Amino acid sequence: MVAGYWRLRAQKSPEAVIKILARRALAQDKVLRMSNAAFAVEEGGDVVVVESMKQAKSRSRTKRSVLPGQEKRIVIPRQEAFECIAEAAQDKSRQLREKFYRYHRQTWLWFLGCAVGMSGVIINSVLLALLILIPGIFHYFTPTLLTLLIADALSLLAVALIFRQTKAFCQQVDFTVEDMLQVDWLCKTVKDIAAIPLDSPTKELLQEVLLVRSLGGENKRVVKEYVKAVYLK
Asked: Cα torsion for 118, 121, 126, 128, to the nearest 10°?
């Protein structure tokens, strides 16, 4: 289970957290599931959410075939979509910080457990070495040697397990930090765009660019207009 989680996490790009956040924020209708919906940004910045054919067929009570164009659609105005993503980004940032502090505390506790276990291993090893190296004492303390040897082996096993758990929590902290950086970037970008005057055409274009990029799409028209507005003035 743990190995599968890390393999899945390794395949996930850092930007995926923004894509999931944005799509979940805009999939407002309970009938439309985020995982089964298609998202598109129309000219002007309005977001269109369309359910998949599979979901449309399962929703149909008559079980008749659903033709293209009969899927459930939601049109979200540009400003409303922008505000939904902005609010979701703030909530996600707060959740990630709470998650980071929780994982950081758990990692520290597991590290302390690992340090205590290693101390026990070192003490047992020193006692074993003394009992073995002192001449003539080996025969008198054979049961003690066996007890220390078993305790040392069990301590090593416990330390190995604790170390593995500590490493797993460290990786979770790293992944959480990556997500925090992405979401903090989104929050800062949203804040900068919101500070632009309402009557500025650049604000509408930047909102459209943000919607396209956060939803995981590429719109060449939007990119060209953005480059023209920002760099070719």
From this structure: -170
